[in-house]
Amino acid sequence: MKLSLTMTGCCYPIKDAKDQKGLLSKPRRNRGCTDILVFLVFVFFICGLIFLGAFSISKGDPFRLVYGTDSFGNTCDEDNSKRAITGVSYSGRNLKGRPYLFFMNIKEPDSSMRICVNKCPENDILTPRELYDFSQQTGSLLCRYDLDLSVYVTANGSLQGPCPVLPIHKSESLLNWCIPRDMVEIDGWQENNIANNVIAYINKSNVFQKVLRDLYASWTVLTALCFLAVAFSVLMVLLIRFLASVIIWLILTLAVLASMAGSAFIWWTFISNKNKLDMEETLRVPLLEVDINSENSFLLFSVVSTVLTIILLLILVAMRKRISHVVLLLKEAGSCVSELPLLLLQPLWTLLLLIMFFVYWVTVLAYLSTSDQTNQMVPPEVSDGLMFCEHHIAVLIHFIRDKSQLGFPILGTIGRLIVFHQGSVAFGSLLTLVKLPKMMLLFITKKLKSCDNCCAQGCAQGCCCWCVEKCLRYINTYAYCVVAISGKNFCTSAKKSYYILVSNTFKLSAMNSVCHLVMLITKVAVMAATTAVSVIWFKSQEDLHFYAIPVLVVAVFSYYIAHCFLSVYQVILDALMLCYCEDRDMNDGSLERPFCGSKGFMIHMAECSQAFNDLVRSQQRSSSEPESEPAQV
């Protein structure tokens, strides 16, 4: 097996664009491993994450965040027999079935002893006899662990036990703590600032504990909403496949309506929360910090969703003339899916792997947060690897004239990915990191080049232009297509794909941007619809305190779910663009050199690219023409 250690190529000298033609017509069979050094760095990084994850799991206990710990270091609702703290009495207890924290004196929660109980007091307990009766009837022992039930009647109650200070007020669970249901009924609650002390103690708790508690309490709803997002995504994929000519405008309309509805629901939730807190503040009821954070979060969500909806409307108005030209291109992508319907299984693999990684990430984060360790992790190259496979399959379908000779392209492509191109996929996973710097440098370079200042032009040529010309300009997703066919490393393939596109007489970047815009808006439609449903659902759940986080999780997950499914079309569209350029370079449509693509596709692409070029030229002409002077009267 030939090993290729070449990592450079993004900074190679610029070659003649003619040398870059004919690259995709000859799929390479004798391949070698690409970007080995990047792959080794990636493996080393993964090994480091596995080591840190194993260390955190051995030292941490995420259930401390959910259930809390008593005064002896025991985690509630857990068997602590293997985690006994040396020198601490009553440590290492088996507290299975005791999920709630109970304070010996709720008036002084900071200095009071805390124990784990299986049930909070449902009624006021005024005497030792009532304490004994409650514990005997419910099995919820409210005195220290070593105290026998028979001595409850004679035991003394104090701040540090062994029994609680009487009276014990009717309580309910708040963040798994037993808190008096109505603190106004406690004698001297205003003079002793009892309510303020309790609220201050709750507000001092770990924010991550509050977030994790709500996520834990709503995991079934989160799962159901994720399946709802899957259903929406599958519906969009099928509609694009069978009704592309009609459904594009319908999808765009639904995206606008869903975005407006989602924004309206979020504003409604914010206003409801604000009115509720304003009423409590008027009544001088102490406010939980988690409720204030929830109100502020929904205010932020409302503003962001409104701004995004306005931007979406402006984009649709600006791009309305171009969107109608991409219908046939989506049909061609749909025919590619029809040739290999198992391509639709790719989103399921992607989604499954991303869910597995998310579960791992949350689990390790929970363990790390309870082991006094910190760590940062980045998503793996799962989606990039599947993007690589889809590029390769789309190219094979385009260039193989006899479609019966395809064989098993999906399995073959996955095998080549695993054996030869893990390093290139790992390299390409850095694309997300360079998108923003690339956009900024391209903008700065354009402005500096148009500046009359010599110093500014020198800066542009010396710094920004060098970065753009030598490296960032070539880093794009089309590189996967060339890697899959030519077997070259990522940087070399990125540069070749760039020259294939720019050397073609038909400039397709505008058309490609419109296709990506349609896919993006479809993802936004799925996200907005699912988020609107989640807001309505979570608002009715009274046991959730910081449900802005579950709503945010639903929004992020629904977008990624839609991305997993619609990336099939997006990747095929990218590959078809590259194939079209290469097909025109290799063939002229004659009997001797017929096009590999379908006749209708090639004609439509030529017409669309010409229409886009004419539209761009007319816009440039109109912007460059000086405004006519008003007529003199």
Notes on the protein architecture:
This protein has 633 residues and is mainly alpha-helical. It folds into two domains: 2-52 and 213-619, no CATH class; 68-205, no CATH class. The chain has 20 helices and six strands. A two-stranded parallel ribbon has the order 1-2. The longest helix has 39 residues, at 244-282. The chain is elongated and about 105 Å long. 38% of the residues are buried. Mean pLDDT is 71; it is low at 1-9, 12-18, 188-192, 373-406 and 626-633. Keywords: Membrane, Transmembrane, Transmembrane helix.
Gross geometry: elongated
What characterizes the major β-sheet? Answer: 2 strands, parallel
Mean pLDDT: 71
H/E topology pattern: EEHHEEHEEHHHHHHHHHHHHHHHHH
- Tell me the number of strands: 6
Q: Class by helix and strand content?
A: mainly alpha
What fraction, in percent, of the residue positions are helical? 55-70%
Number of domains: 2
Unreliable residue stretches: 1-9, 12-18, 188-192, 373-406, 626-633
Strand content range? under 5%
Please give the order of strands in the largest beta sheet.
1-2
Distance between the termini: 84 Å
